[in-house]
Amino acid sequence: MRREELLSLRLHEAVALKLKTQPEFLNSLPKRLKSLSEKGQLHPYYLAEWLAWLDLEETTRLSYLVSQDEYWISLRQSSPFAGFLTSKERQVVLKNFKKEWNVLCGELT
Question: Which single residue of 7, 34, 36, 79 could bond 41 by disulfide (Cβ 3.0 to 4.6 Å)?
Fold first, then answer.
C-alpha cells in the first residue's frame, strides 16, 4: 500500500471509531455529499457510491470504510469525512502514522 493510501486508511479507522459513538453525524452526510457535488468537489460517480454506502447496515458500512480492498482504497480518496475528526484527533493519527511509516521504512524514530 502506498504511503498516502495507508495514511488515508489510518484516518478512516479513526473516523470509523468515532462513528461508533457519534452515528448521528451520518444524518448530515447526504446533504454534505450533495453540496460537495454541486461545488464540483465530488464526481457524480463518487456521490452515488457514498450514497449507496450510507444505505448499508452499520457493521458493514464501518468494515468497508476501513477495508484494504482496492475499491475502498480508491473510494477513500474522495472521502466526505474531511473535518469530521477534530484537529487534536487528526494530529494523534498523524503522529502515530509517522511512527508507523518510519518503522515500515526501517527508520529509527
Answer: 36
pTM of this prediction? 0.89
Query: What amino acid is encoded at 103 in this protein?
Result: V
pLDDT, tens only, 20-68: 999 999 999 999 999 999 999 999 999 999 999 999 999 999 999 999 9
Angle at 18 between CA 67 and CA 77, to 5 degrees: 40
Q: What is the pLDDT of residue 108?
A: 58
> Is the Cβ–Cβ distance between 79 and 49 less than 8 Å?
no
Evaluated on CA atoms 51, 56, 57, 63, the torsion sign reads negative
CA–CA gap between residue 22 and residue 106 (Å, rounded):
37
> Grid coordinates representing 26?
451520518
